[in-house]
Amino acid sequence: RVCPGFSVTQAWEGLVHICRLVEGMPLALELAAAGLKTLPIERIAAEIENGLGILSSPWQDVEPRHRSMRAVFDHSWKLLPIAERKSLQQLAVLRGGFGLSAAAAVARAAPPLLAGLVERSLLHVTPGGRYQMHELLRQYALERLHAVGQEETAARDRHSAYYARMMQEREQALKGSDQQ
């Protein structure tokens, strides 16, 4: 509707890229589509990779908390207890999912706290038992963490220490005949 003459066939790669970036989130897809009025699809994808700013609606007839992905996340953020906010911020430094030990080491998040975030649909558990955060939510939480600089530095230091320790523990397996 916003871009007459738009061809799904011609824009297929960009569409797939955006769908992956927003992990199929319907509102994010609708907000990204609104950008087609002024930007090429490749630029929209690049903007999504850089932050949530592009995912906002110019329409005023939309409920305020649905005008942007930031507004959606702000609404959910306000409902969270402070401990869950802090943990979610710190968990955002973990890209691509994490296990219980990483959550404990990096964000000092215990299983009950993680369960609360899962219950609120802010994290989900994979069949393999790893936790994952939606990439857009991770970007939002990282912005929140960045706003409290000392906590970001501490979380990133714990992240580095955790993975350095993990690599050190696996050094023999990485260098030995058992490596895959």
What key phrases describe this protein's structure?
single chain, 180 residues, 10 helices
Task: Provide structural commentary.
- The protein is 59% helix and 2% strand.
- The chain has helices spanning 12-21, 26-34, 41-50, 69-79, 82-91, 100-107, 111-119, 135-147, 149-169, 171-175, and strands at residues 124-125, 131-132.
- Strands 1-2 form a two-stranded antiparallel sheet.
- It starts with 11 loop residues before the first helix and ends in a 5-residue tail after the last helix.
- The model has no long low-confidence stretch (mean pLDDT 88).
Topology:
Blueprint lengths: L11 H10 L4 H9 L6 H10 L18 H11 L2 H10 L8 H8 L3 H9 L4 E2 L5 E2 L2 H13 L1 H21 L1 H5 L5
Antiparallel strand pairs: 1-2
Helix pairs in contact: 1-3, 5-7, 5-8, 6-9
DSSP summary: helix tally: 10
Reading the helices and strands in chain order gives HHHHHHHEEHHH
Structural class category: mainly alpha
Largest sheet: 2 strands, antiparallel
The average pLDDT value, as a whole number, equals 88
The number of distinct β-strands equals 2
Low-confidence runs (pLDDT<50, min 5 residues)?
Answer: none
Strand order, sheet with most strands = 1-2
* Overall 3D form: globular
Helical residue percent? 55-70%
N-C termini distance: 50 Å
Which strand-content bin applies to the residues? under 5%
Radius of gyration: 19 Å
